[in-house]
Write a structure and sequence with these properties.
The chain has about 675 residues and is of the alpha/beta class. The protein has a seven-stranded mixed β-sheet, sandwiched between helices. Helix 13 packs parallel to helix 15. About 45% of the residues are buried. About 0% of the residues have low confidence. The chain binds adenosine-5'-diphosphate and magnesium ion (MG).
Length: about 675
């Protein structure tokens, strides 16, 4: 940690305003320095071990005379020694006392995946309590800095709140930019915070600077990955090394799921001549034809030999399902390095190890041991957890959801998220992508690639590890204010990825976006329902999730008066009342379709009753969707009686939900990404 005066010097170089100061080592010198600076002054302890000076009784403000300054020196040094007897006391800094102002924080930290990150927010001693901060991954533009300033909850205090004069927002923006430039250019600065930065009606002043340097800062590598040919994921022949007829073995289950593969399938087993009814080979090298992909289930210590043989056979891609590598500590890591070295020698690419492998339902390829292969569909699911794939695939069968691809990335010794993203981006069957992420190594490269994918196909991500429990104790406010989860969220936002917090949510968002109408064109919405209660809830949820309910213009209300009961609510949400028949919905839909320049999304919310069957309302929604290019979202509330209607909506690829909160939450997530 640099001393405060070193920190001030650095900041001043970058044009950040700091107070006049002097460092002293005796009471007498303190008095003289205070005299030169001008009273009152603030005095603070200088010690590399004391990070939070106030906590140590190491800050005295309002020192008004030479004598007081001398006394303050002694007091500060005593308190500091009492607070931490081991701490090395370098001296005391005497500085100009700044006028009171709005206390803000500007901080920075180095994220292991995404590099330097800048935070900004409400500062002072209550920062951790208020947690009113926002962050950006560097580099940053002036426009982004302006957004940061606007984003914090306390922004009204900057803009002028309840008769208070506005503060120097423009000066603040320039100061944040200067600080960003300082952080980017100072290669050895890994973390810092300026807390507080006092903001005035004119100008600002940094009255504390904590700068942490590391002479060997972690280096971020930006790797550019070449796109793999699509054929790598579309093999015509597959060998299963370790294929087995023993139902207790992994090699059995993998082989079993591959039996439906329409291409050539070659079991390899060094002890048997046939496996599950197919001729088996002792080694891949004995197979009398080319092999496009190998799947490996043999124990870890045999894997190097197997990879060697695959290399000799000229197999371009090998799925290593076997576990017992990097995830198992040092010996495993060494083994993983060995198989990578062998594979590299032959130009063989590796999926895994320690993974479930790959499922490409449209091709009938399933190298995993999932209980039952998933259906073909248009969503690609790339997951860092094999268990979650198992669960999701099982659940997708019941929910009638299909996949264009399912990938378990495993240890990512060779192929990683970037390669799979590059693949599904080009895969014509894939219309939407779901990522389950635990940790990404190369964040910057990830952002670049995923941004390209998201420009063409919606990408939805669920990131585990949002809890702050177990997060390493941080040495600065910035460190404790913004955990790595927040950095991921910011990275997602920047690259067009929609973050979702639940697994089922990811599928609902992805399915909606993969539907023919794709993204909504804006956030203006109308709600049409036959239930007053749901009308009110729809308003609540719209407000909560940032969806804008448009006012109905008088001419539309007038027209609707023509065919609706006298007591309809004449408002949006449009309540067609509990006795609404399909005819009433139909007329309303036709009118709204005619005026579809007024809105971007129509939510139809309906419950079952005796005058309106789920089939009827579903058919009306389908007709409505045909009349307009705008997005229509159905919410059919109820139990089994709504099933038929839901199936109709599904057949026509109209997004639909079974719970109202979900409808609005999912749309809110999408709009947040699109129209923030
Ligand atoms: P720490 O954060 O290590 O406890 P600071 O240097 O931030 O110590 O000082 C604690 C508080 O004292 C600041 O939050 C600020 O309110 C006040 N303070 C510090 N330096 C000055 C100064 N030069 N002028 C006015 N107030 C100051
Ligand atoms: Mg401070």
């Amino acid at each position: 940690m640099l001393s405060e005066s070193e920190g001030y010097d650095l900041l001043r170089e970058y044009g950040v305003p700091v107070p006049a100061f002097e460092s002293v080592t005796s009471p007498k010198a303190a008095g003289a320095a205070a005299e030169r600076i001008g009273f009152p002054v603030v005095m603070k302890i200088v010690s590399p071990q004391i990070v939070h000076k106030s906590d140590a009784g190491g800050v005295i403000v309002g020192v008004g005379s030479e004598e007081q300054a001398a006394a303050a020196f002694t007091k500060i040094v005593e308190s500091a020694k009492e607070y931490d007897s081991e701490a090395e006391i370098v001296g005391v800094i005497v500085e100009e006392q700044a006028a009171p102002g709005l206390e803000l924080i500007i901080g920075g930290k180095t994220d292991p995946a995404f590099g330097k990150v800048l935070t900004f927010g409400m500062g002072g001693t209550l920062v951790e309590l208020m947690k009113d901060v926002t962050l950006r991954i560097l580099p940053i533009t002036e426009e982004e800095v302006r957004c940061m300033v606007h984003e914090i909850n306390a922004y009204p205090l900057i803009a002028g709140y309840r008769g208070m004069k506005p503060r120097d927002e423009e000066g603040l923006v320039q100061t944040i930019l200067s600080v960003a430039r300082f952080f980017e250019e100072a290669a050895n600065v890994v973390e810092f915070d300026i807390n507080p930065l006092r903001l005035y009606e004119k100008g600002s002043l940094a009255v504390d600077a904590r700068v942490i340097v590391d002479d060997h800062p972690p280096e971020l590598v930006i790797e550019d990955r070449l796109e793999l040919p699509l054929e790598y994921f579309n093999p015509r022949s597959v060998a299963v090394i370790g294929a087995s007829s023993d139902s207790k073995k992994m090699g059995y289950a993998v082989m079993h799921n591959l039996l439906q593969f329409p291409g050539q399938l070659y079991p390899v087993n060094n002890k048997r001549s046939d496996v599950q009814g197919l001729k088996a080979y002792r080694s891949v090298k004995d197979i009398p034809a080319p092999v496009d992909m190998a799947v490996v289930t043999v124990p870890a210590n045999f894997v190097p030999m197997v990879i060697e043989e695959c290399g000799q056979k000229g197999i371009p891609i090998v799925v290593v399902i076997t576990a017992g590598f990097k995830e198992m500590g040092e010996t495993g890591r060494a083994l993983e390095e060995r198989i990578m070295a062998i594979a590299k020698g032959y130009g063989t690419r590796i999926i895994g190890p320690n993974c479930l492998g790959l499922i490409v339902p449209p091709r009938g390829l399933d190298t995993t041991y999932v209980h039952e292969s998933p259906r073909a569909g248009n969503i690609a699911f790339i997951s860092q957890s094999g268990a979650i794939i198992n669960t999701v695939v099982d659940w997708s069968l019941a929910e009638d959801i299909g996949f264009s691809a399912v990938v378990s990335v495993g240890n990512q010794a060779d192929l990683n998220f970037l390669d799979y993203l590059n693949w599904v981006k080009r895969d014509p069957k894939t219309k939407g992508v779901i990522l389950y992420i635990e940790e990404i190594k190369n964040g910057k490269a990830f952002m670049k690639v995923v941004e390209e994918v998201a420009r063409e196909k919606p990408v939805v991500a669920i990131k585990s590890g949002s809890s702050t429990k177990g997060q390493a104790a941080a040495s600065s406010h910035t460190g404790s204010l913004s955990g790595s989860y927040d950095v991921y969220m910011e990275a997602f936002r920047r690259s067009g990825v929609i973050p979702v917090h639940t697994l089922t949510g990811t599928f609902q968002v992805a399915e909606m976006l993969a539907s023919p109408k794709g993204y909504p064109q804006g956030k203006r919405a109308v709600v049409i329902t036959n239930a007053g209660g749901f009308a009110v809830l729809s308003s609540d949820y719209s407000e909560r999730y940032g969806i804008e309910l448009v006012d109905l213009p008088p001419e539309i209300v007038e027209e609707m008066n023509g065919f609706l009961p006298e007591f309809w609510n004449k408002n949006n949400p449009i309540d067609l009342l509990g006795d609404a028949t399909d005819k009433r919905f139909q007329k309303t839909f036709e009118l709204l379709a005619k005026h579809d320049d007024l809105w971007d999304i129509a939510f139809v919310v309906s419950f079952p009753n005796l005058v309106l069957s789920s089939e009827q309302i579903a058919n009306e929604i389908v007709r409505f969707s045909g009349l307009t290019g705008k997005m229509i979202v159905g919410t059919l509330l109820g139990g089994d009686s709504m099933q038929r209607g839901r199936s109709i909506l599904r057949e026509h690829q109209i997004p639909s939900f079974e719970e109202l909160d979900f409808t609005f939450r999912v749309m809110g997530r999408i709009l947040w990404q699109q129209f923030r």
